[in-house]
Every structure is written in structure tokens, then in C-alpha cells.
Amino acid sequence: MSADAQSRPQDQVAGRPGRIDAVPVRHPGRWVAIAVIAVLVAMLVHLLVTNKAFDWSFVFQAMNQQPVIAGFLKGTLLVTALSMVVGVGGGVLLAVMRLSDNPILSGVSWVFTWFFRSIPRYILLFSMGTLGILFPQGLSFGVPFDWKLMEWFGLSGDLRFLNLDANQVFTGLVAGVIGLGLSEAAYMAEIARAGMLSVDKGQAEAAQALGMSSGKVMRRVVLPQAMRVIVPPTGNETIAMLKDTSLLVAVPVIGELFYQLQSIGTTYYKTFPIAVAATLYYLAATSVLMIGQYFLERHFGRGFGTKAPRGPRAARPAGAGGA
């Protein structure tokens, strides 16, 4: 028994393959790509430093002007935030209407989405700025019918409980927020609808079986799980909305960033440096939004994905129990 036990390890060691001398695979294409990219980067840096058309001193002077900074804070960031609030709130409402069993609500949601997705935002903002011509007597809320109808019912007085100046409503930041918000609501409706449809119907049925109302099921069960699908495209839409605030020149919004930069460029006949200044502003703002989007996606994406859990518990084999 001892002879057999001593011979087995020797046989196994003798039967093992010898040392493998692995030769690393060469990738000449990588070095070629690195060389090409390095040359292109060097050319770009040389262009940025030596070309006098950039006029960096004027670019930074224009960026530091008080009207430009105020336009960036109020006309760009504020309009972006307010438009996204209108767009996200309206989009979720439209998505719920679209998924409703009521054909009227579903049809209204579809028509709204079809209409505002079909119109370019520049044309929508331009049209929004001219809507005051439709209401020369003011924008009234109440009974806007012929006063003969009131005489038939023996009524007297003014049944309009609110009357607004249309030229004040459909101009400036208000018109920009309304136009961009309604356009964004049409896109957010499809994003929210896709997120709601991604949640298994059994989740809602189980919640309803526990006695939860439809509204509570939507708030407590469906929407929290749908956020994993809704957040990434919503972040992209927010970044796109930030850039689309430059279209507010169609209203026009005097306090907007690009409007202020254009005014400076027209005054000093500096067109290209103004475009560079606007580019730097939008690059900085979108970079911050991308970082926020990353953390939001990581927060709502917890528990999903293909990454293995970390720690000693991840290495424990199945069925090992407490061993």
C-alpha cells in the first residue's frame, strides 16, 4: 500500500505537461492608431495656440461680462430647470393617460405627443412668440361666448374670472419655458411610457391584490422600478434642453446667454471668438450634468446588471452553507 501511495504522485508529476512559453500577440494596429491620434492632437493644440483667429483674450473678456454671466444663470440654467420640470411632469401625466383604458385620455395623449414631436423647437418658439396676435383683447379664462347666450339665461356681468395680457405671457422667459416645456413633455411621455411598460405587470397586480389603489400602485410600485429605465434618457434630454436654450433667440429672450454673446460679437465685430466663448460655457455646463447623470444612474440601477457582488460572500460556492 505504501509503494502504491508513493508512486502515484510521481506518476502524476511525470505526466504533467512542461512549461509553456507563451508569446504575446503583437498589435501593430494599436501603435499606428496611437501615432495618428497623437499627430492629430498635436495639430489641434498647435492650431489653438498659434491661430490668432481664436483671440483668447477677447474670449475670456466676453465670458466674464456681467450680462453674459447673468444670461447663463437666468436665461440658460433657469430656463433649463423650469422647462424640464414642465416636461417631466407633463410627460409622466401623458404617459399615464396613454396607458389608460379610457380611449379619450389615450387619444388626447397621442395627439399631443404627435403634434409637439412634429414641430421643430425653433419654429415652435418662434410661433409661441407671435401667439399674442390671437388674443388682442387679452387671454381670458371663463365663458368666452357671445353675450347673447348670457341674455338667454338671464345672466349679467362678466363670467371671465381671469384676464391676462397675451403679449406679456407669450414673450420672454415665460414663452421660452412654455414652448420648450411642452415640446419636452411630448418626448418625456414616450420615455416614461417605455419605463412603465418595462415593469412586469405582475408587480401592479400583486399590489392591487393587497388593496392598493391605482394611484398608489403607480407611485409606490411602478414608477420607482421604472426609474431605472427613465433616468438615462431623461439625463440626455436635460443635456439637450440645456443646449436648446440657445434657440430662445427666436422669442427673443434678452437675458439668454447666446443672445448676450451675440450682442457683444456684433458690437466688436468678433464673430468666431463669441462662438468659442459660447462653446466653452456649454461644455462646462454639460460636463457637470453628465456627472450628475452618472450618479443618478448608479443610484437607481442598484440591484441590476451583470457585475458580481464583492466581498467574501461572493466567492462562497453554491450549497456550501456555513462551511
UniProtKB/TrEMBL annotation:
Any GO BP annotation: transmembrane transport
Topological relation to the membrane, as annotated: Multi-pass membrane protein
Keyword Nucleotide-binding: no
Domain of life per record: Bacteria
Annotated Gene Ontology cellular component terms: plasma membrane
Domain ABC transmembrane type-1: 73-293
Ranges of biased composition (kind: Polar residues): 1-10
Protein name per its UniProtKB record: Polar amino acid transport system permease protein
SUPFAM superfamilies referenced in this protein's UniProt entry, alphabetically: MetI-like
InterPro entries the UniProt entry points to: ArtM/GltK/GlnP/TcyL/YhdX-like, MetI-like, MetI-like_sf
Region annotation (Disordered) ranges: 1-20
Family the entry assigns: Belongs to the binding-protein-dependent transport system permease family.
UniProt keyword annotations, A-Z: Amino-acid transport, Membrane, Transmembrane, Transmembrane helix, Transport
PROSITE patterns reported for this sequence: ABC_TM1
Location relative to the cell: Cell membrane; Membrane
Matches recorded under PANTHER family: L-CYSTINE TRANSPORT SYSTEM PERMEASE PROTEIN TCYL, MEMBRANE COMPONENT OF AMINO ACID ABC TRANSPORTER
Record-annotated membrane-spanning stretches: 31-49, 69-96, 122-143, 169-189, 274-296
Organism per entry: Kribbella solani
Main location: membrane
Record keyword Hydrolase present: no
Coiled-coil ranges per UniProt: none
